[in-house]
């Protein structure tokens, strides 16, 4: 989704694609194949895998990311050799390691759920006693949830996150951690009213912009519906949420787009997760904002002046297409375009797998209920089945 | 500019690129190099130059165009072999040959300037006597313009168009026509108030949509500024203009996007030129309409239901960047983004040449004067020089 704004700005995009069939390789002309964890592949990407206009390889001016799974050591070495790496490895680590992130946000006095790094059953028991429901509590069932345990690295879309009732619930993770796997952290179960997200962009020169705060509806740990702006949000909470995003962007020296996922609890906000890249909670900006998160990310990492983040319509709702009953999601193209001539369909060129993010639909307008209903209906046609997540016949 | 909507709709785009450095080749992964006039290149394009997912060449479902210079015989043969060609050769000829177009529009009773095919000085003298200023007219200078002569084929952006005072002014074209070059037609000089354009899209199933009528400001025969919708347009003229576009689309069996350029003369409209493809007068739709002309063209040629053509803002103005004083137009990227964070910049990946269309800028908003001033100012920064057309130091 960065390809269109890159073309419009005259920015040559060279993407390290996981395979020749990867989404990016389908739509970017210069897409060498390799793994982001492979130092050689990263260096070839930066050096220029393909001949440029002159016939010689053209090295990249800037290296940036669409996911966090890129080794910090490689990035530091590449930066030391003179390539601009945005965000830098010292910022990116906060999106790679939840313990590092929580510790740094706590230092900055950014509101976060109560949390602790837990290295053993004993430490988790201590945390549960401190923040969980009183134990034993006769009013609660034996297996009442009491906290969230997360792996510090490698989790996404609900993976690496487990709601626990007692320390033994993550025995397997403790064993994995002891064997060199990711460390664990425990967090209080936040009784949130809803989830919000704030998207910000910051350039190396220090310019920071935020977009309107959005409401994010998650189903089974996966983002399903984003409403922009978040309905019924008090001006105070809106301001606080945006200020936190700016504070995080500056405090962590983030460059490019930063997504800050938050819990709203009685008008206050707590930071849940961070991403340092264009993020699902910001896909609404492609159609719904003057400057999309993808264009803004390019501007930011290239240290160009940032674009206007105003909304283009009173309401914009984005619905994810998570799995499909169709053989290919494109099989539903005629039906979805016939059903709603104003729904903006964005497919990712992926084969159907249960629950997989295959695309999203955006609808803008003046009537929130109508806009939301249209976005959900269009996504349902592409999904070809009931419910926000259609797991298909052969749920894997 | 078709690449982004193709990706979003999950449509694989294979483009015949003029060279490896062509604009399309920079942004489309599957871009074999060849000439549109080369039958072998067209057939390889349709057959599939590169392996698809299965490892075998994947033939195209639909063949369409971004310019008119594609031989009708090749298209008829390809269509006869079972590939959907949109628009078909029998429609496309009206965008290739102005005499064929004028004759057919006259048959359909579509209002056009008075015109005649002229095969000789004598026929042109006859036409001038019939529609031109009376000759001799003592109130006019000797060389007063009296009609427009056009080559029936091969003209664009003011090329192949000459304002004449007397038959000898196109002696060279008569000589060229006699030697097998394009035939000539003469048209009255229309005392137009302004130029309008109507964009329509029609699918093979017969669904037709038009966008709001726009005003097009031409400088030296080249489109410079497009204002959407056309200011101060009477509802009657708006309706008449849209109806003419629908009549032309249906009467000529056009599929895909059709641009109808018109003269407004005292509230009436006359058809000037046709294009059967996304057109410069419709670039405003990328940012200014719910469905861009590029997405709509894809929908139409694939016979998908068409999208909503409503404007997304009260006013949208598009300014072309015609030539630049910068070595590369991207050299002005920081300046233009700093000057106007809401201006949408679209560059075409072309090297600078005097007067060349290097890109365009779009601005949307509620205040027409402000929107127009912003679009012109942003284009001027990219141009790096005064006036709508900056011809540069070394005007060729």
Question: Could you describe the 3D structure shown?
Answer:
Two copies of one chain form a homodimer. With 396 residues, chain A is an alpha+beta fold. Helix content of chain A is 30%, strand content 22%. Chain A is built from 13 helices and 15 strands. The longest helix of chain A is centred in the middle third of the chain and has 17 residues, at 235-251. Chain A starts with a helix and ends in a 13-residue tail after the last helix. The model of chain A is unreliable at 392-396 (pLDDT under 50). The A-B interface holds A 3-4, 7-12, 21, 25-29, 31, 53, 290-291, 299, 304-308, 310, 312-313, 328-330, 333-334, 337-338, 341-342, 344-347, 349, 359, 364 and B 3-4, 7-12, 21, 25-29, 31, 53, 290-291, 299, 304-308, 310, 312-313, 328-330, 333-334, 337-338, 341-342, 344-347, 349, 359, 364.
Write the layout of secondary structure elements.
The structure is a homodimer of 396-residue chains.
Chain A: H1 3-8, H2 23-27, H3 39-47, E1 62-63, H4 72-80, E2 84-85, H5 89-96, H6 98-107, E3 115-118, H7 121-131, E4 147-151, E5 161-164, H8 171-178, E6 184-188, E7 194-202, E8 208-210, E9 214-219, E10 222-228, H9 235-251, E11 256-265, E12 268-275, H10 285-288, H11 293-301, E13 315-322, H12 333-339, E14 344-347, E15 357-365, H13 368-383
Parallel strand pairs in A: 1-2
Antiparallel strand pairs in A: 3-6, 4-5, 4-6, 7-8, 7-9, 7-11, 9-10, 10-13, 11-12, 13-15, 14-15
Helix pairs in contact in A: 4-5, 5-6, 12-13
Describe the main β-sheet of chain A briefly.
Answer: 9 strands, antiparallel
Uncertain segments of chain A are 392-396
| Computed structural class of chain A | alpha+beta
The level of helicity of chain A is 25-40%
Shape of chain A: globular
β-strand number of chain A:
15
- Largest interface, chains and sizes: A-B, 43 and 43 residues
What is the first-to-last residue Cα distance of chain A?
28 Å
Roughly what fraction of the amino acids of chain A lie in strands? 15-25%
Number of helices of chain A: 13
Assembly type of the shown chains?
A: homodimer
Q: Could you state the order of secondary-structure elements of chain A as H and E?
A: HHHEHEHHEHEEHEEEEEHEEHHEHEEH
Mean of all residue-level pLDDT scores of chain A: 92
Q: What gyration radius of chain A follows from the Cα positions, in whole Å?
A: 22 Å
């Amino acid at each position: 989704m960065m390809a269109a704004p890159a073309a419009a700005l005259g920015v040559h995009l060279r993407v390290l694609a996981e395979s020749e069939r990867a989404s990016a390789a389908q739509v970017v002309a210069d897409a060498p194949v390799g793994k982001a964890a492979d130092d050689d592949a990263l260096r070839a990407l930066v050096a220029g895998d393909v001949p440029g206009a002159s016939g010689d390889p053209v090295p990249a001016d800037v290296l940036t990311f669409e996911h966090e799974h890129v080794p910090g050591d490689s990035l530091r070495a590449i930066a030391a050799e003179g390539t601009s790496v945005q965000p830098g490895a010292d910022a990116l680590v906060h999106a790679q390691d939840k313990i590092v992130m929580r510790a740094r946000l706590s230092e900055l006095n950014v509101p976060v759920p109560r949390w602790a790094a837990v290295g053993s059953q004993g430490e988790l028991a201590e945390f549960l006693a401190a923040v969980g429901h009183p134990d034993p509590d006769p009013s609660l069932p034996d297996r009442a949830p009491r906290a969230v345990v997360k792996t510090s690295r490698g989790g996404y879309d609900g993976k690496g996150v487990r709601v626990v009732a007692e320390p033994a619930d993550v025995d397997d993770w403790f064993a994995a951690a002891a064997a060199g796997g990711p460390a664990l952290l425990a967090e209080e179960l936040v009784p949130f009213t809803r989830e919000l997200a704030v998207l910000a962009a910051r350039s190396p020169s220090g310019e920071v912009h935020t977009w309107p705060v959005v409401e994010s509806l998650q189903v089974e740990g996966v983002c399903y519906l984003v409403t922009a702006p978040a309905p019924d949000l008090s001006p105070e909470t809106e301001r606080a949420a945006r200020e936190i995003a700016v504070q995080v962007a500056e405090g962590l020296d983030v460059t490019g787009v930063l997504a800050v996922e938050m819990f709203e609890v009685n008008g206050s906000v707590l930071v849940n997760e961070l991403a340092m890249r264009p993020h699902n909670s910001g896909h609404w900006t492609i159609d719904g904002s003057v400057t999309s998160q993808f264009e803004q990310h390019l501007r930011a990492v290239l240290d160009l002046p940032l674009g206007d983040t105003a909304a283009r319509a009173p309401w914009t709702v984005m619905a994810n297409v998570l799995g499909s009953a169709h053989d290919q999601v494109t099989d539903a193209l005629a039906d979805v375009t016939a059903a709603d001539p104003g729904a903006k369909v964005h497919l990712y060129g992926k084969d159907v797998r249960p629950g997989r993010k295959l695309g999203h639909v955006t609808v803008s307008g003046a009537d929130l209920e109508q806009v939301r209903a249209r976005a959900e209906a269009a996504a349902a046609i592409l999904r070809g089945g009931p419910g926000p997540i259609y797991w298909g016949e052969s749920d894997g």
